[in-house]
Protein backbone atom coordinates (compact mmCIF):
# COMPACT_ATOMS: atom_id res chain seq x y z
CA UNK A 1 0.00 0.00 0.00
CA UNK A 2 1.08 3.57 -0.71
CA UNK A 3 -0.20 6.36 1.54
CA UNK A 4 -1.63 9.49 -0.05
CA UNK A 5 -0.68 12.33 2.28
CA UNK A 6 -1.38 16.04 2.60
CA UNK A 7 1.51 17.89 0.90
CA UNK A 8 3.23 21.03 2.13
CA UNK A 9 0.67 23.77 1.60
CA UNK A 10 2.85 26.86 1.77
CA UNK A 11 4.12 29.39 4.25
CA UNK A 12 1.89 29.89 7.34
CA UNK A 13 -0.63 27.26 6.13
CA UNK A 14 -0.82 24.23 8.43
CA UNK A 15 -4.17 22.62 7.61
CA UNK A 16 -6.72 22.25 4.85
CA UNK A 17 -10.23 20.98 4.21
CA UNK A 18 -10.91 18.00 1.94
CA UNK A 19 -13.07 19.74 -0.64
CA UNK A 20 -13.73 17.00 -3.21
CA UNK A 21 -12.61 13.49 -4.09
CA UNK A 22 -12.26 13.05 -7.84
CA UNK A 23 -12.12 9.24 -7.52
CA UNK A 24 -13.99 6.60 -5.52
CA UNK A 25 -12.52 3.69 -3.59
CA UNK A 26 -11.86 0.93 -6.07
CA UNK A 27 -11.22 3.23 -9.04
CA UNK A 28 -8.18 2.62 -11.20
CA UNK A 29 -5.99 5.72 -11.51
CA UNK A 30 -3.02 6.76 -13.60
CA UNK A 31 0.17 8.23 -12.23
CA UNK A 32 -0.14 12.00 -11.62
CA UNK A 33 -3.94 11.86 -12.12
CA UNK A 34 -5.77 14.17 -9.70
CA UNK A 35 -7.26 12.24 -6.79
CA UNK A 36 -8.53 14.87 -4.38
CA UNK A 37 -8.83 18.63 -4.08
CA UNK A 38 -7.90 20.37 -0.84
CA UNK A 39 -8.94 23.87 0.09
CA UNK A 40 -6.89 26.16 2.31
CA UNK A 41 -7.72 29.67 3.41
CA UNK A 42 -5.71 30.99 0.44
CA UNK A 43 -5.73 28.59 -2.49
CA UNK A 44 -7.01 25.22 -3.65
CA UNK A 45 -4.48 22.39 -3.96
CA UNK A 46 -4.82 19.28 -6.10
CA UNK A 47 -3.24 16.05 -4.80
CA UNK A 48 -2.20 13.64 -7.56
CA UNK A 49 -1.63 9.90 -7.56
CA UNK A 50 2.02 9.14 -6.72
CA UNK A 51 1.87 6.03 -8.95
CA UNK A 52 -0.51 4.06 -11.16
CA UNK A 53 -2.80 1.62 -9.39
CA UNK A 54 -6.09 1.40 -7.53
CA UNK A 55 -7.46 3.80 -4.94
CA UNK A 56 -7.94 1.18 -2.21
CA UNK A 57 -9.19 3.32 0.64
CA UNK A 58 -10.37 6.85 1.36
CA UNK A 59 -9.38 7.79 4.92
CA UNK A 60 -10.28 11.51 5.04
CA UNK A 61 -13.81 12.11 3.79
CA UNK A 62 -14.99 15.29 2.11
CA UNK A 63 -15.35 18.03 4.70
CA UNK A 64 -12.63 16.68 7.01
CA UNK A 65 -9.92 19.02 8.30
CA UNK A 66 -6.43 17.59 7.79
CA UNK A 67 -2.92 18.67 8.75
CA UNK A 68 0.20 18.56 6.63
CA UNK A 69 1.39 14.95 6.42
CA UNK A 70 -1.98 13.46 7.37
CA UNK A 71 -3.13 10.39 5.42
CA UNK A 72 -5.88 11.12 2.91
CA UNK A 73 -6.17 7.63 1.47
CA UNK A 74 -4.24 4.59 0.33
CA UNK A 75 -3.34 3.13 -3.03
CA UNK A 76 -2.47 -0.39 -4.07
CA UNK A 77 -1.16 -2.03 -7.22
CA UNK A 78 -3.26 -2.67 -10.32
CA UNK A 79 -4.68 -5.87 -8.81
CA UNK A 80 -5.44 -4.45 -5.38
CA UNK A 81 -8.90 -4.80 -3.89
CA UNK A 82 -10.64 -1.77 -2.39
CA UNK A 83 -10.73 -1.73 1.39
CA UNK A 84 -14.07 0.03 1.30
CA UNK A 85 -16.82 0.13 -1.24
CA UNK A 86 -17.14 3.85 -0.94
CA UNK A 87 -15.81 6.78 1.03
CA UNK A 88 -16.31 6.55 4.76
CA UNK A 89 -18.49 9.29 6.23
CA UNK A 90 -15.68 10.28 8.58
CA UNK A 91 -12.03 9.32 9.11
CA UNK A 92 -11.71 5.96 10.89
CA UNK A 93 -8.15 6.49 11.98
CA UNK A 94 -7.13 9.51 13.92
CA UNK A 95 -4.94 11.78 11.85
CA UNK A 96 -1.37 11.81 13.17
CA UNK A 97 -0.69 14.63 15.52
CA UNK A 98 1.85 17.12 14.29
CA UNK A 99 5.11 17.14 16.20
CA UNK A 100 5.32 19.48 19.13
CA UNK A 101 6.79 22.81 18.30
CA UNK A 102 10.46 22.98 19.06
CA UNK A 103 11.60 25.64 21.49
CA UNK A 104 12.37 28.83 19.63
CA UNK A 105 15.99 29.16 18.69
CA UNK A 106 17.87 32.08 20.21
CA UNK A 107 17.28 35.18 18.12
CA UNK A 108 19.75 37.93 17.41
CA UNK A 109 19.45 40.90 19.70
CA UNK A 110 18.30 43.05 16.81
CA UNK A 111 15.43 40.67 16.10
CA UNK A 112 14.33 40.63 19.75
CA UNK A 113 14.45 44.39 19.89
CA UNK A 114 12.38 44.63 16.71
CA UNK A 115 9.81 42.22 18.13
CA UNK A 116 9.54 44.17 21.36
CA UNK A 117 8.88 47.25 19.29
CA UNK A 118 5.80 45.66 17.74
CA UNK A 119 3.04 48.27 17.50
CA UNK A 120 0.36 48.28 20.23
CA UNK A 121 -2.24 46.79 17.87
CA UNK A 122 0.01 43.77 17.25
CA UNK A 123 0.79 43.40 20.97
CA UNK A 124 -2.93 43.46 21.73
CA UNK A 125 -3.69 40.74 19.15
CA UNK A 126 -0.85 38.58 20.51
CA UNK A 127 -2.05 39.05 24.11
CA UNK A 128 -5.65 38.18 23.21
CA UNK A 129 -4.44 35.08 21.38
CA UNK A 130 -2.25 34.02 24.30
CA UNK A 131 1.01 34.01 22.32
CA UNK A 132 4.40 35.60 22.93
CA UNK A 133 5.99 37.56 20.08
CA UNK A 134 9.22 38.51 21.80
CA UNK A 135 12.16 36.79 20.16
CA UNK A 136 10.26 36.35 16.89
CA UNK A 137 11.63 37.81 13.67
CA UNK A 138 8.69 39.29 11.80
CA UNK A 139 8.11 40.09 8.15
CA UNK A 140 7.99 43.84 8.67
CA UNK A 141 10.74 46.36 8.38
CA UNK A 142 13.93 45.36 10.29
CA UNK A 143 12.25 42.12 11.40
CA UNK A 144 9.36 43.88 13.14
CA UNK A 145 6.39 41.66 13.96
CA UNK A 146 3.30 42.66 11.98
CA UNK A 147 -0.38 41.98 12.53
CA UNK A 148 -0.26 39.20 9.92
CA UNK A 149 2.68 37.58 11.76
CA UNK A 150 0.79 37.58 15.06
CA UNK A 151 -2.33 36.07 13.49
CA UNK A 152 -0.21 33.39 11.79
CA UNK A 153 1.44 32.45 15.11
CA UNK A 154 -1.97 32.18 16.79
CA UNK A 155 -3.37 30.02 13.97
CA UNK A 156 -0.34 27.72 13.93
CA UNK A 157 -0.39 27.31 17.71
CA UNK A 158 -4.04 26.34 17.54
CA UNK A 159 -3.28 23.74 14.88
CA UNK A 160 -0.47 22.23 16.98
CA UNK A 161 -2.30 22.20 20.29
CA UNK A 162 -5.15 19.95 19.22
CA UNK A 163 -5.98 17.28 16.71
CA UNK A 164 -8.60 18.79 14.40
CA UNK A 165 -11.93 17.03 14.42
CA UNK A 166 -13.47 16.21 11.06
CA UNK A 167 -16.01 18.73 9.83
CA UNK A 168 -19.38 17.65 8.48
CA UNK A 169 -19.43 17.12 4.71
CA UNK A 170 -19.53 20.29 2.63
CA UNK A 171 -23.07 19.74 1.43
CA UNK A 172 -26.29 21.67 1.67
CA UNK A 173 -28.22 21.18 4.91
CA UNK A 174 -31.87 21.78 4.06
CA UNK A 175 -33.65 23.69 6.81
CA UNK A 176 -37.05 23.91 5.17
CA UNK A 177 -38.58 23.88 1.73
CA UNK A 178 -37.82 27.61 1.49
CA UNK A 179 -34.13 27.79 2.39
CA UNK A 180 -30.96 25.80 2.85
CA UNK A 181 -27.83 26.29 4.92
CA UNK A 182 -24.27 25.41 3.85
CA UNK A 183 -20.98 25.93 5.72
CA UNK A 184 -18.65 28.65 4.45
CA UNK A 185 -15.52 27.46 2.67
CA UNK A 186 -12.11 28.36 4.05
CA UNK A 187 -11.53 30.76 1.17
CA UNK A 188 -14.87 32.52 1.75
CA UNK A 189 -14.11 32.85 5.48
CA UNK A 190 -10.72 34.38 4.69
CA UNK A 191 -12.24 36.81 2.18
CA UNK A 192 -14.82 37.90 4.75
CA UNK A 193 -12.21 38.31 7.50
CA UNK A 194 -9.74 40.26 5.36
CA UNK A 195 -12.37 42.63 3.94
CA UNK A 196 -13.74 43.37 7.40
CA UNK A 197 -10.23 43.91 8.76
CA UNK A 198 -9.58 46.42 5.97
CA UNK A 199 -12.73 48.33 6.88
CA UNK A 200 -11.91 48.29 10.59
CA UNK A 201 -8.24 49.25 10.20
CA UNK A 202 -7.95 51.74 7.33
CA UNK A 203 -9.50 55.20 7.13
CA UNK A 204 -11.03 54.23 3.81
CA UNK A 205 -12.38 56.82 1.40
CA UNK A 206 -13.31 56.70 -2.29
CA UNK A 207 -12.88 59.37 -4.97
CA UNK A 208 -14.50 59.21 -8.42
CA UNK A 209 -13.79 60.38 -11.94
CA UNK A 210 -14.69 59.30 -15.44
CA UNK A 211 -12.67 58.58 -18.56
CA UNK A 212 -13.49 58.90 -22.24
CA UNK A 213 -12.52 55.50 -23.65
CA UNK A 214 -12.65 56.61 -27.32
CA UNK A 215 -8.87 56.72 -27.82
CA UNK A 216 -8.25 53.27 -26.33
CA UNK A 217 -11.13 51.73 -28.26
CA UNK A 218 -9.84 53.27 -31.48
CA UNK A 219 -6.32 51.98 -30.80
CA UNK A 220 -7.63 48.49 -30.10
CA UNK A 221 -9.70 48.44 -33.28
CA UNK A 222 -6.73 49.65 -35.30
CA UNK A 223 -4.07 47.31 -33.94
CA UNK A 224 -5.93 44.28 -32.49
CA UNK A 225 -5.32 42.01 -35.49
CA UNK A 226 -1.63 42.82 -35.92
CA UNK A 227 -1.11 42.72 -32.14
CA UNK A 228 -2.62 39.25 -31.82
CA UNK A 229 -0.76 38.00 -34.89
CA UNK A 230 2.60 39.14 -33.52
CA UNK A 231 2.19 38.37 -29.82
CA UNK A 232 -0.34 35.54 -29.80
CA UNK A 233 -2.62 37.32 -27.34
CA UNK A 234 -5.56 39.70 -27.71
CA UNK A 235 -5.12 43.38 -26.92
CA UNK A 236 -7.45 44.05 -24.02
CA UNK A 237 -8.17 47.00 -21.75
CA UNK A 238 -6.25 45.76 -18.71
CA UNK A 239 -2.76 46.47 -20.06
CA UNK A 240 -3.76 50.10 -20.68
CA UNK A 241 -5.07 50.38 -17.12
CA UNK A 242 -1.97 48.77 -15.64
CA UNK A 243 0.28 51.22 -17.52
CA UNK A 244 -1.90 54.18 -16.53
CA UNK A 245 -1.86 53.16 -12.86
CA UNK A 246 1.92 52.72 -12.84
CA UNK A 247 2.33 56.24 -14.23
CA UNK A 248 0.13 57.54 -11.42
CA UNK A 249 1.92 55.48 -8.75
CA UNK A 250 5.30 56.85 -9.83
CA UNK A 251 4.02 60.40 -9.42
CA UNK A 252 2.14 59.74 -6.16
CA UNK A 253 4.33 57.22 -4.26
CA UNK A 254 2.10 57.21 -1.16
CA UNK A 255 -0.52 55.24 -3.10
CA UNK A 256 2.13 52.54 -3.68
CA UNK A 257 3.14 52.49 0.01
CA UNK A 258 1.83 50.81 3.14
CA UNK A 259 1.71 51.47 6.87
CA UNK A 260 3.67 49.17 9.20
CA UNK A 261 3.20 50.22 12.80
CA UNK A 262 4.50 53.78 13.03
CA UNK A 263 6.45 53.51 9.76
CA UNK A 264 5.55 54.07 6.12
CA UNK A 265 7.08 51.58 3.71
CA UNK A 266 7.55 53.05 0.24
CA UNK A 267 7.71 50.45 -2.53
CA UNK A 268 10.13 51.15 -5.36
CA UNK A 269 8.60 48.36 -7.44
CA UNK A 270 5.19 47.92 -9.00
CA UNK A 271 3.52 44.54 -8.44
CA UNK A 272 -0.05 45.00 -9.59
CA UNK A 273 -2.82 42.76 -8.26
CA UNK A 274 -5.64 41.94 -10.68
CA UNK A 275 -8.86 40.93 -8.92
CA UNK A 276 -10.45 37.82 -10.48
CA UNK A 277 -13.87 36.43 -9.62
CA UNK A 278 -14.09 32.63 -9.50
CA UNK A 279 -16.65 30.04 -8.42
CA UNK A 280 -14.68 29.71 -5.17
CA UNK A 281 -14.59 33.45 -4.47
CA UNK A 282 -12.50 36.53 -5.23
CA UNK A 283 -8.74 36.08 -5.62
CA UNK A 284 -6.09 38.64 -6.55
CA UNK A 285 -3.14 37.19 -8.50
CA UNK A 286 -0.17 39.50 -9.00
CA UNK A 287 1.65 40.75 -12.10
CA UNK A 288 5.24 41.18 -10.87
CA UNK A 289 7.39 44.17 -11.88
CA UNK A 290 4.70 45.34 -14.27
CA UNK A 291 6.61 48.55 -14.97
CA UNK A 292 9.31 46.52 -16.74
CA UNK A 293 6.87 44.57 -18.91
CA UNK A 294 5.43 45.38 -22.31
CA UNK A 295 1.70 45.52 -22.91
CA UNK A 296 1.89 42.14 -24.65
CA UNK A 297 3.67 40.59 -21.65
CA UNK A 298 1.09 42.08 -19.28
CA UNK A 299 -1.83 40.78 -21.37
CA UNK A 300 -0.28 37.29 -21.53
CA UNK A 301 0.37 37.16 -17.80
CA UNK A 302 -3.09 38.40 -16.88
CA UNK A 303 -4.62 35.79 -19.17
CA UNK A 304 -2.51 32.99 -17.67
CA UNK A 305 -3.25 34.06 -14.10
CA UNK A 306 -6.97 34.36 -14.82
CA UNK A 307 -7.05 30.85 -16.28
CA UNK A 308 -5.14 29.44 -13.29
CA UNK A 309 -7.55 31.22 -10.92
CA UNK A 310 -10.64 29.79 -12.60
CA UNK A 311 -9.12 26.28 -12.65
CA UNK A 312 -7.99 26.50 -9.02
CA UNK A 313 -4.30 26.16 -9.92
CA UNK A 314 -2.95 29.36 -8.37
CA UNK A 315 0.00 28.99 -6.02
CA UNK A 316 0.55 31.02 -2.87
CA UNK A 317 3.33 33.02 -4.49
CA UNK A 318 0.87 34.07 -7.23
CA UNK A 319 -1.24 35.87 -4.63
CA UNK A 320 1.27 37.55 -2.33
CA UNK A 321 2.99 40.91 -2.30
CA UNK A 322 0.93 43.20 -4.56
CA UNK A 323 1.52 46.91 -4.02
CA UNK A 324 -1.70 48.10 -5.72
CA UNK A 325 -4.86 46.40 -6.99
CA UNK A 326 -7.15 46.84 -10.00
CA UNK A 327 -10.69 45.45 -9.84
CA UNK A 328 -12.90 45.29 -12.94
CA UNK A 329 -16.55 45.18 -11.98
CA UNK A 330 -17.46 46.32 -15.47
CA UNK A 331 -17.28 42.76 -16.80
CA UNK A 332 -20.36 42.02 -14.68
CA UNK A 333 -22.18 45.19 -15.73
CA UNK A 334 -21.34 47.39 -12.72
CA UNK A 335 -21.73 51.08 -13.50
CA UNK A 336 -20.22 52.40 -10.26
CA UNK A 337 -18.91 50.96 -7.00
CA UNK A 338 -16.66 51.68 -4.03
CA UNK A 339 -13.98 48.94 -3.96
CA UNK A 340 -12.57 47.79 -0.61
CA UNK A 341 -8.82 47.98 -0.02
CA UNK A 342 -6.74 44.82 -0.28
CA UNK A 343 -4.79 45.26 2.97
CA UNK A 344 -2.08 46.27 3.63
CA UNK A 345 -2.19 48.20 0.34
CA UNK A 346 -3.16 51.86 0.39
CA UNK A 347 -5.06 52.06 -2.88
CA UNK A 348 -7.32 50.13 -5.25
CA UNK A 349 -8.77 51.19 -8.60
CA UNK A 350 -12.27 50.13 -9.61
CA UNK A 351 -13.07 49.83 -13.33
CA UNK A 352 -16.66 49.81 -14.51
CA UNK A 353 -18.92 49.30 -17.51
CA UNK A 354 -18.25 51.35 -20.63
CA UNK A 355 -21.46 53.14 -21.52
CA UNK A 356 -22.32 55.70 -24.20
CA UNK A 357 -23.22 58.96 -22.49
CA UNK A 358 -23.71 62.56 -23.63
CA UNK A 359 -20.89 64.86 -22.58
CA UNK A 360 -19.95 68.42 -23.44
CA UNK A 361 -16.81 69.01 -25.53
CA UNK A 362 -16.03 72.53 -26.82
CA UNK A 363 -19.55 73.56 -25.83
CA UNK A 364 -21.04 70.83 -28.00
CA UNK A 365 -23.00 67.85 -26.67
CA UNK A 366 -21.53 64.64 -28.07
CA UNK A 367 -21.96 60.98 -27.27
CA UNK A 368 -18.82 59.19 -26.08
CA UNK A 369 -18.04 55.77 -24.55
CA UNK A 370 -17.47 56.70 -20.91
CA UNK A 371 -16.29 54.73 -17.89
CA UNK A 372 -16.64 55.74 -14.26
CA UNK A 373 -13.42 55.26 -12.29
CA UNK A 374 -13.38 54.75 -8.52
CA UNK A 375 -10.24 54.90 -6.41
CA UNK A 376 -10.49 53.82 -2.76
CA UNK A 377 -7.56 54.78 -0.57
CA UNK A 378 -6.32 54.75 3.01
CA UNK A 379 -6.68 58.33 4.22
CA UNK A 380 -4.13 57.66 6.99
CA UNK A 381 -1.34 57.72 4.41
CA UNK A 382 -2.90 59.20 1.24
CA UNK A 383 -4.26 62.74 1.38
CA UNK A 384 -7.31 63.74 -0.61
CA UNK A 385 -5.23 65.88 -2.96
CA UNK A 386 -2.91 62.94 -3.69
CA UNK A 387 -5.81 60.57 -4.33
CA UNK A 388 -7.52 62.97 -6.70
CA UNK A 389 -4.25 63.70 -8.50
CA UNK A 390 -3.55 59.99 -8.90
CA UNK A 391 -6.98 59.36 -10.40
CA UNK A 392 -6.63 62.34 -12.73
CA UNK A 393 -3.30 60.92 -13.98
CA UNK A 394 -5.01 57.58 -14.65
CA UNK A 395 -7.77 59.38 -16.53
CA UNK A 396 -5.26 61.37 -18.59
CA UNK A 397 -3.32 58.22 -19.46
CA UNK A 398 -6.45 56.42 -20.61
CA UNK A 399 -7.71 59.34 -22.67
CA UNK A 400 -4.32 59.95 -24.31
CA UNK A 401 -2.57 56.54 -24.37
CA UNK A 402 0.12 57.69 -26.80
CA UNK A 403 1.32 60.30 -24.33
CA UNK A 404 1.32 57.68 -21.55
CA UNK A 405 3.25 55.10 -23.57
CA UNK A 406 5.80 57.75 -24.55
CA UNK A 407 6.28 58.56 -20.82
CA UNK A 408 5.42 62.22 -21.31
From TrEMBL:
Alphabetical list of Gene3D superfamilies matching this protein: 2.40.50.100, Chloramphenicol acetyltransferase-like domain, E3-binding domain
Every Peripheral subunit-binding (PSBD) domain range: 117-154
GO aspect biological process, one term: L-lysine catabolic process to acetyl-CoA via saccharopine
Cofactor: (R)-lipoate
Its EC number(s): 2.3.1.61
Classification via PROSITE patterns: BIOTINYL_LIPOYL, LIPOYL, PSBD
Region annotation (Disordered) ranges: 82-121
Domain Lipoyl-binding: 1-76
Keywords linked to the UniProt accession: Acyltransferase, Lipoyl, Transferase, Tricarboxylic acid cycle
Molecular-function GO term, any one: dihydrolipoyllysine-residue succinyltransferase activity
Pathway assignment: Amino-acid degradation; L-lysine degradation via saccharopine pathway; glutaryl-CoA from L-lysine: step 6/6
Biased composition regions of type Pro residues, renumbered to the chain: 96-107
Catalytically driven reaction(s): N(6)-[(R)-dihydrolipoyl]-L-lysyl-[protein] + succinyl-CoA = N(6)-[(R)-S(8)-succinyldihydrolipoyl]-L-lysyl-[protein] + CoA
GO cellular component: cytosol; oxoglutarate dehydrogenase complex
Biased composition (Low complexity): 82-93, 108-120
NCBIfam families (UniProt xref): PRK05704.1, sucB
Similarity field: Belongs to the 2-oxoacid dehydrogenase family.
Assembly, per entry: Forms a 24-polypeptide structural core with octahedral symmetry. Part of the 2-oxoglutarate dehydrogenase (OGDH) complex composed of E1 (2-oxoglutarate dehydrogenase), E2 (dihydrolipoamide succinyltransferase) and E3 (dihydrolipoamide dehydrogenase); the complex contains multiple copies of the three enzymatic components (E1, E2 and E3).
Name the UniProt record assigns to this protein: Dihydrolipoyllysine-residue succinyltransferase component of 2-oxoglutarate dehydrogenase complex
Organism: Terricaulis silvestris
Amino acid sequence: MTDIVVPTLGESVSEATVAKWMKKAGDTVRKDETLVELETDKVSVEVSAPEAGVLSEIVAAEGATVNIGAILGRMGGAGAQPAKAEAAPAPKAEAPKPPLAAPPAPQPAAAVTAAKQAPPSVQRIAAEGGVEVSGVTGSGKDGRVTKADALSIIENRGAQSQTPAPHPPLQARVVSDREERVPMTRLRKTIARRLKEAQNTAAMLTTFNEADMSAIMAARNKYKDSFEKKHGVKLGFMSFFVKACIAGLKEIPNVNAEIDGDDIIYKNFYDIGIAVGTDRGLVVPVVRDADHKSMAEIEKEIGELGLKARDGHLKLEDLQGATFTISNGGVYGSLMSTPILNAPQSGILGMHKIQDRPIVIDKQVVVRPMMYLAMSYDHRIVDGKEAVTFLVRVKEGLEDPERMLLDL
